[in-house]
Amino acid sequence: MSPAANSALLVRHQRNPILTVQDWPYPVNTAFNPGAVLLPDGTTLLLCRVEDHRGHSHLCAARSANGVDGWAIDPQPTLAPDPLGHPEDLWGIEDPRITFVPELGRYAVVYTSYSESGPGVSLALTADFRTFERMGMIMSPEDKDAALFPHRIGECWALIHRPVSHTGAHIWISYSPDLRHWGSHKMILPARRGAWWDAGKVGLSTPPVETGRGWLLFYHGVRMTAAGCIYRLGVALMDLATPERCLLRSDEWFFGPEEPYERHGDVDNVVFPCGCTVGPDGDTLRVYYGAADTSIALATGSINGILEWLDRHGHPPADLR
Ligand code: BMA
């Protein structure tokens, strides 16, 4: 299949990149990898990873009525690292994924805390993106690329995350009765090996998207080349009742760095979505992604279109080694 045909699954917005440091109300180095959520009044909120001129990141909210422009950006960090209260935040906080949790009536923000021992997964709860209840680190280093499911699976909360082990960086699921104590860890989506585009390292992109056919799990695959890494996007379909069961996994990536703002930046050749919104039609998917670790871009697709593509280009996982 030609790259153009795959790329058509997600169509880049003509105003990309939609947010850059030029838009920021205070001096920063880069703004990228935002979590995204549609608020009840229809406002799109992006919780952006913002890197300061020390190289440390914090999170900053940007709100827009149409999700494309007219962003109102908080005049100061919305969620800043708190190395005194939370030593795990020593070198900053990064890459938030947001899930609205009806049972709690709050949003769960799951992000990377860059601790002295490496990156781990932290959780904070908020109703308004102004005040946060920080629950601290819930997955110890090295672990990142995590998001909470919006409701319990059976009795337990479920978290997707990406610990690193001696066999590589694979996607896992873990369960908890109380959001604090986590167990029943299982690897659910391994990185492939050899020449595959997602060999060696994969990680969750956006929080899982619930559909009638299962959970769409967008993930990034990393290709390590002599010229550096290439971050591209693939997709898997996980069973609705048992999300640790992979039903289909794409054999090809369907979105990768092509445009100059994705090809070149602080880190070349990176598209890195952490958030998406689903429109009122239940089908229109807006994916917000970091481009080259430098700016924020938007691409739009159809959930049904992606499912159809996965039917044609996906396989049960056992066929993919
Ligand atoms: C990953 C994360 C992302 C970043 C990507 C490319 O490991 O740190 O935040 O966008 O690398 O640099």
Secondary structure elements and pairings:
Layout: H1 3-7, E1 11-12, E2 30-38, E3 44-51, E4 57-64, E5 72-73, E6 93-101, E7 106-115, E8 118-126, E9 133-139, E10 143-148, E11 157-165, E12 168-169, E13 171-176, E14 183-189, E15 202-204, E16 209-211, E17 214-225, E18 228-238, E19 246-250, H2 260-263, E20 271-278, E21 284-291, E22 295-302, H3 303-313, E23 314-315
Beta-D-mannopyranose (BMA) is lined by residues 33, 94-95, 231, 267, 270, 272, 290, 293.
CATH fold title: Tachylectin-2, Chain A
Any low-confidence stretches, pLDDT <50, length ≥5?
1-5
What is the CA–CA distance across the termini?
20 Å
Shape: globular
Number of domains: 1
The ligands bound in this entry are: beta-D-mannopyranose
Counting helices, strands and paired strands, the structural category is: mainly beta
Total number of helices: 3
* CATH classification, class level: Mainly Beta
**What's the name of the CATH homologous superfamily?**
Glycosyl hydrolase domain, family 43
Overall radius of gyration: 18 Å
State which percent range the strand residues make up.
Answer: over 45%
H/E element order? HEEEEEEEEEEEEEEEEEEEHEEEHE
The overall pLDDT, averaged over residues, is 96
Helix percentage range: under 10%
Task: Describe the main β-sheet briefly.
Answer: 6 strands, antiparallel
Overview of the molecule:
This protein has 321 residues and is mostly beta strands. It has one domain: Glycosyl hydrolase domain, family 43 (Tachylectin-2, Chain A). The protein has three helices and 23 strands. The protein has helices at 3-7, 260-263, 303-313; strands at residues 11-12, 30-38, 44-51, 57-64, 72-73, 93-101, 106-115, 118-126, 133-139, 143-148, 157-165, 168-169, 171-176, 183-189, 202-204, 209-211, 214-225, 228-238, 246-250, 271-278, 284-291, 295-302, 314-315. Strands 15, 16, 17, 18, 19 and 23 form a six-stranded antiparallel β-sheet that branches. Strands 10, 11, 12, 13 and 14 form a five-stranded antiparallel β-sheet that branches. A four-stranded antiparallel β-sheet has the order 1-22-21-20. A hairpin with an 8-residue loop joins strand 10 and strand 11. The longest helix has 11 residues, at 303-313. It is globular. The two termini are 20 Å apart. The model is unreliable at 1-5 (pLDDT under 50). Bound molecules: beta-D-mannopyranose. The site of beta-D-mannopyranose has 9 residues, from strand 6. The site of beta-D-mannopyranose (BMA) has 9 residues, from strand 6.
